Amino acid sequence: MANPIWCVIWFLVLILPAFPIAFFCAFWYVLAYFLSPCLSFCLDISEKLLRGVQLPGYAAERMIHCQGC
Q: What residues have CB less than 8 Å from 11, skipping those under 6 apart?
């Protein structure tokens, strides 16, 4: 059985750090992805920024299933 404490913890992670990180990464992701055909190093940067954009989805999935780290 899942521990409901994890739901609360993941909710706090979702609201406090995940959304601000995602908003910050989204802006830079668009710029890096736009420049990636011209500058090959931007492709690596855009992949890392995409993980930051997907952070709220990861936290929400963990929250719904009450999964630990």
A: 63
Query: Are the C-beta atoms of 10 and 62 separated by less than 8 Å?
Result: yes
pLDDT tier, 2 (very low <50, low <70, confident <90, very high otherwise): confident
Distance CA 46, CA 29 (A): 5
Domain boundaries, the chain: 4-65
Which tens digit of pLDDT belongs to each residue from 19-69? 999 999 999 999 999 999 999 999 999 999 999 999 999 999 999 988 887
Q: What angle do CA 13, 30, 28 make, to 5 degrees?
A: 55
For residues 11 and 15, what is the distance between their CA atoms, to the nearest angstrom? 6
Q: What is the DSSP string of 36-50?
A: TTT-THHHHHHHHHH
